[in-house]
Amino acid sequence: MTELQILLQKCNDAFNSDQHQLLIDLLPDDVLQEKKAAALYVLKSRSLLFINQNALGNLEKKIIKEAQNYVEIALELEPENWQALFAQAKILNEEGRYKLALDCINRAIQNSKNKPETYLSRSTIFLRMSRYHETIEDCQKVVAHDLASIDLKWRANNNIGVAYYELGNYELAEKYYLEAKKMSKTSALILYNLGELKFLQGKKSEALKFFSDGIKIDSGDKSFGYNSVGVIQQSEKENQLAEDAYLRAIDCDPKNIKAHINLARLLEGNNNKRSNKDAQNHYDRAIELGSDEAISLRQLLRIRSGLGGIDLNTEIANPKSSWEQILNILIKHKDNESLQSIGELYARQLHPILEGIKQISLGNNSEKKTLNRKIAHYTSLKVADLLLMGKSRRLRYSNEVFMNDPQEGKILFQCLEDFEFGLNEQNHRRNTSKIWQAIEQAEANYEPSCYIGSFIPATDNHEDELVMWRTYGKDEKGNEASGCCIVLEEQMFDRLELDNISTVLEEQKFKRQFLYQVLYYNTRNKRFENSELQDKMSKLADQVKNILNETEKYAKEMESIIKEQFIQAVNEIIFLSLSDIRYLFKSADYQFESELRVMHYAPAHSGKLDHKRTQVNIDEHSEFIPRRLYIESSREVKQYIDKIIIGPKVINPEKYHYLKAKSVIDCKKSEKPIEVQKSTCQYQ
């Protein structure tokens, strides 16, 4: 045997016996550079991933990057090495680049001649893409494979369980989890999955046992187990045990955001200054770690406890006093901080129903996400050029003031006005609507801060549709049907993740981009097609009306200056609260579009804004050309582009095939070039 063969044998033995640190020690970078063997680079990359993942399979970004470097070298040495492709697919999957990961693992399956581990890897990618039936199909291949090890088979059964769990078939989910548990006595992951399932079914004692057993054998992510135990104990009013569990979770992983938030919420319930300050510290830590949810929770804590402001606890004998008592105390102070606190308390009243409406919009969309949709975006050819050739390859979301519908952002307010007077009342006037007057008074001081990206589902010919070309597919000069349609993979956008152990996490407005389904309101018959939404809008109108009536009642007892400030503060908080959802609504006249939207909120001081010269019909030699504010999408677009369709009125469309050539030049071995084609619409 040669020296290389001996080293390769040692490394394979170490890898197969799970001695990953030994393997890493055998392959320092100088040895790898000397041997120049793709197999060695792959083994080191895979051992890095194995040794650094926790019980739930999570990896740190720096580890992923280091492993990626070794895999790329291996692919340079042997572009069709199936093990390198296998490792590359795992890394791409961890990075959320599912389309590329899928292309990569398909090549690995072909080159490996159907190794069982490649099917298991592909099932994990399908799982992340919400393609659950394909997940089950691949895992069943692993279970039936003659060469599949017990380790591969239990993981396959576990993935089948997860797929059935996501599909809502809890009976089959439990069956496959238990099958996986029989095959592996050392996996905390299976026990945690069983714990989540039992908790969702309301079987808390069984869930607690599974989580506790998982912690005992978990060598990686005990933090998840302890946090889950804390949630169960808190739900059973065993608050001291829950606090101990959360503290253990944080001790195991100081970066566990959920544990910090859960502990802070628990401490708030103690109703004393020391606990509230400790709670604020945990909210602060969660904010440092990137939680937007913790920001609003901390604000409410400060209002209730008087941290850095009014001390409500010292002025109210019973900390659970009524809203009226709290409001009286805040008004008595007669200062701006008190008015702001009033606004926060009103916002707290509106928040649950506003979130419920947003969940309907996200829910309408998420039901279709399992179909792995394509999303169409009509724009100019210049935009397509910039996405492939420019330095910044991100979409631009324009400020709300540039929307082309004159009723944009107003339909919600019209709907609330209708509900305020009752749906059968036909003769109400806007100047008698308390809701509309409050909104108009507040809007005057409003800084437009919503940035909107508009898309449509590419199904039902929407990706090449005459009315869309005429309305949206224009060039820079506004010529109809002279732009392009960019068809994107839906994986570009974030998917709402439901946390069955804790609460549903609020969307992180400044960091994540969710795809909302526009909600269409029929202004003629004053109805929504969705009965749940109809009910929530009625309740929202009632809540806003009650707040305004209450404001009017308290304002009568105030001095003139504080009265004006008080009314304005309430009007503004109502307007700002409603603004969070105002761009979810459009007239049913546009319902044929089935529009999908990304909404980012960015005030002028956020540092996220940029601007461009607007393309309007004015003299190009004018000294003043208006500029359009925009922010960029949080992800680069190129890797998610499926195809580009050239508009039907574009002259010499073949000259734009350089876009495809550019994508071919840039793409790696694991990627597919972007398809470029001409519209088939007959445009006169």
What value does the average pLDDT take? 81
Shape, principal axes of CA atoms: globular
> How large a portion of the residues is in β-strands, by DSSP E?
5-15%
The end-to-end span amounts to: 74 Å
Count of DSSP-assigned helices: 28
Low-confidence stretches: 308-323, 365-371, 497-511, 613-622
Helix content: 55-70%
Structural class: alpha+beta
**Radius of gyration based on Cα positions:** 29 Å
How many E-type strands?
12
Largest sheet: 10 strands, mixed
Quick description:
The chain has 684 residues and is an alpha+beta fold.
Tell me about this structure.
- By secondary structure, the protein is an alpha+beta fold.
- It has helices at residues 3-16, 20-26, 29-35, 38-52, 61-77, 82-94, 98-112, 116-128, 132-144, 150-167, 170-183, 188-200, 204-217, 222-235, 239-252, 257-268, 273-288, 293-305, 312-315, 323-333, 336-369, 381-389, 411-421, 434-443, 466-471, 531-555, 560-579, 658-666; strands spanning 374-379, 396-399, 450-457, 484-489, 516-517, 519-521, 585-587, 596-601, 610-613, 627-632, 641-646, 675-678.
- Strands 1, 2, 3, 4, 5, 8, 9, 10, 11 and 12 form a ten-stranded mixed β-sheet that branches.
- The model is unreliable at 308-323, 365-371, 497-511 and 613-622 (pLDDT under 50).
